[in-house]
What does this fold into?
Amino acid sequence: MGEVIVVTSGKGGVGKTTTTANIGTGLALKGKSVVLVDADIGLRNLDVVMGLENRIVYDLVDVVEGVCRQRQALIKDKRFPNLYLLPAAQTKDKNAVNPEQMQKLTGDLAEEFDYVILDCPAGIEQGFKNAIAGANKAIVVTTPEVSAVRDADRIIGLLEASGLRNPMLIINRIKMDMVKRGDMMNIDDMIDILAIDLLGVVPDDDLIVVSTNRGEPVIAIEQSLAGQAYRNIVRRVLGEDIPFMNLESEDGFFKRVAKLFGLNKKKQ
Amino acid sequence: MAENAVIFKGTKDGLYIILKEEMDLSTIKYNLEKKIKPSKRFFEGANIMNFKGKKLTQDEFDELKEIMEQEYGMTVIGSYNDKDYPVHEEHRAAKKPEILEQLPFDNVHKGEALIVRATLRSGQLIQYKGDVVVIGDVNPGAHIKSAGSVIVMGTVRGIIQAGANGDYGAFIVAYKMQPSQLRIGDIITRSPDGMGSKSDNPEIALVKQGMIVVEPYLKNR
It folds into this structure.
């Protein structure tokens, strides 16, 4: 029985879909069988980010409604043979499925795959309830902005209320130089507020935009900082104990970041 | 209540004034004044075909006609006697001669077409039992499902499904063909990954030897 992980955030645009795509691809790179489920019915994006948009014939709603078999709707990734996508319907809305149906669907998928990763829609309505219904683990994505952290806090509360204890936190799009200047919330502040385990910190990276537009997750790009961060996150998901300061030893930029950290500590 | 005592109604034949059944003549006159006065200049010179609705006596008709003509400068064309016969059928028939079908060759498909004058955006689905004509673009994420053929006077970037009931003779035409997917009958094809060569010419997609083929339909371009 595989794990069902929901990636959620409350706020839109913080990187749920990018995170889902990268963690999924990363787990597949590690040899796990993975299915990514786009739970954002009506505003699907995961297929585009994965570069699989033009392969969609059946979707999640078709599976739930019994129009096709589950296997028929799964789209095999271009690069990784053990990575699949179950796309959302675009011409329906969130009310096309209910939490019970999602529970059954993710249950069926978990029989077949090591990891089922759900890309949750923004918001706390029906779509969110559907996405978390079948999950047994949750990853909360936030960015270093007060509004995103506020929404993440609300989401963590809702997750706990529905029995998803101990969600893990990913802080996305952090700019170390801004944090250093005091222009951006720092990691400790956010963990202070949210009080959940940190799964990883992903630096802001222009390559994300490039890779998203190309439909190739950034995790496969060796020289990308964000890619490195996602590779570490994946190893932590797999249970490895990877230290957080790994950003230090990568390349010029990381060394600079590390130095800035050092300076920061001295000042304190 | 009294708001609708008098209604101006434009028809193919001209302007009618519909008088509400239960209104008495003074109410009607009052409402006529209320309607016409503010835009008297607009109504001036207008031709009123006739009154409709409330049964008028000859005297009432004459009175209203006089008001319309004297006070508001309109002309009432109809007379009291033909007030219940709104349309002259033979008159209309003479105006619009029927177009007789005349075709120089056989390669013609006749059927019902749905004409959409809009750009179809992501998440919009059009399903129709006949042909579909889109005057506009079909964006990514938009979906057209047609039992017949599909013609797009614009760029196709979404999914087009022609001959959805299994008609392999259906085709898809677009000014610019950049679809994410095309389907004819139960045959599915998708655009190649990456930025393939894009044609600037209008193209047609049809089934040839069990495959969907996209080619220019104006051969000399």
Q: What stands out?
A: Chain B has two domains: 2-95, 113-216. The mean pLDDT of chain B is 84.
